Structure prediction request, 496 residues.
Amino acid sequence: MPGNRPLDVQVSRRRVLQWGAGAALLGLTAGCSGTDDAGSTIGPDSPEVRAYAESEERRFPGGRPVAYELSATQSDVDIAGTRTAAWLYNTQLPGPILRADVGDRVQVRFRNQLPESTTVHWHGLAIRNDMDGVPDVTQSPIPAGTEFVYDFIPPDPGTYWYHTHGDLQRGRGLYGALIVDDPGAPSAYDTEFVVVLSDWLTERTPAEVFDQLRGGGMASMPGPDMTSAALGGDAGDVRYPVYLVNGKPPNDPTVFTARPGQRARIRLINAGDDTAFRVALGGHRLTVTDTDGFPVEPVDTGSVLIGMGERYDAVVTLQDGVFPLVAVAEGKGAQGFAVVRTGGGAAPDPAAAPRELTAPPLTVADLRATGADRLPVVDPDVTLEASLGGDMKKYSWTVNGQAYPDHTPLAVHSDQRVRLVYTNTTTMWHPMHLHGHTFAVARPDGSGPRKDTVIVLPGQSVATDIDTTNPGQWIMHCHNDYHLAAGMATIFSYVT
Ligand SMILES: [Cu+2]
Prediction:
C-alpha cells in the first residue's frame, strides 16, 4: 500500500451518502461492492459498529479499565554489540508485553513519534472495527507527532500480538506480544515463556529491500536457493543477516529460566516479515494446546512450523539442565536461538540442531478444534473465492487479479456463514490473515481448528468458514509484509 493514496475502488454516490459525513471527514474510501443489490457499506463509524461495541460492553459488564502507554520512536537497538537503527515501541525490541483479562476495557494511549504516519493493529482480536488499526480502512493514518487512543474489549483469551499496519514499517521493529488471560479458567501451567520470533535486517530498511525486489534484484545474501519441502517450494524472498528470539540474536540469546519439573506454557508468535520458523525445544516434546488464541485438542510433536502472523502455544514439562530453543528460519539455512535453563551447565551451541527437528513439523492439518470452540456444521450462505496470484517480473502480488489498493471487496452481510476459499496459483506459500474474525479451517466434520492466519501452500486451496458477527471493513491479506506491500490484500466488506 504505497503511501496514503486513496484506495482505488468504485465509489458509488449512494455509498458516500449512506456512509455519511464522518467517513468523508476521515477520508476513508475502503469498501464498496459497486453493485446496487449489495447494499451500502458498513464503515468503521457506522451504527452497526457502535451497536457491536455496545453489545460487547453488555456481554462483559464490569470489565476493568486497563491503561497502557505506547510510543513509537526512532531508536537503535543492540544486536550482539552492533547498534542498528530501528523503529520501536517504548524503545524495546520487541515492544512491551501488553496483558489484559477477557472483557477488560483496554485503553492504549498511542503516541506516534516516528517521522511518518502509522497505526497499531491488534492482531487476531475480534474487536470493534474502528479500533482495528488499518490505515484508510478503519481509521485515518495517525500523523507523525500526534496521538490516538485505542479503546477496545478483548473478547477471547489467548496469545495475540500487536504491530504497525503502516507500509513496510513492521520489519523495523514495531511489534509486540498481547496476551489475554481468562481469570475464570484454571491455569494448567506453572510458568510461561512468551517467544516473539522475527527476521532482522542490519544494513537496509524493509523499504530498500522492497525496492530491490521490485527492481528485479534478489534481495537475499548469496547462498543456496531458499526452498522448503514443508512450504511446498520457495521459502521466502529475503535472506536475512540474523533471526531474533525476543529481539536477541543467537550469539547473545534470550535465556528463559525456570525450575525442573515445572510445566511451562510456551507462547510462540511469528512476528517476521518473510520467514516461517520451525521451532523445537531440545530434549523436550511440545504439547500443542492452542493456535491463534484458540484451543485445540492437545497433540504432541517434536517441532511446529509457524508462518508470519500465526501463534502456537505449547506446554512442556521441563527437564533438569540447559536446553536450546531453536527457531529454524525455514529454508533459509540459519536459525534463531534462545536458551531454556532449569539447572547448571554450559549454554548450548547457538547452532544446535536438536533431534526434535528431524521429524516433519506439526502443521494445521494435525490440529482439531476442541468441541467448545468448533463452529457449528452448517451449509455456507455464500462462498467467496480469493485467488492468490503473482507476477514475479513486476514483483506484484494479487488477490483475484488485483493488487491492493486496487481491489473488489468481498461483500458479506451480517449473520451469515461465509466460506472463503483461498486458492494459491503462485509458486510460493502465503500466510493469509483475516482481520476481526477467527475463522475455522473448513472440514466436513467441523473439526477444523480456529485460526486468524492460515498457510496456503503453492497450488493448493484452503477453505475457511467465517460467521459474520463483527460488522465493518476488514482487511484480508498475506502476512508476508513484502507481499502485502506489493498488493496481496483485499477487503472483507460488510454491507447492509
Ligand atoms: Cu504472500
Q: What stands out?
A: Helices lie at 13-19, 21-26, 47-59, 206-214, 481-485. Residues 119 and 443 are 35 Å apart (CA to CA). Residues 397, 430, 478, 480, 483, 488 surround copper (II) ion (CB under 6 Å). The two ends are 27 Å apart (CA to CA).
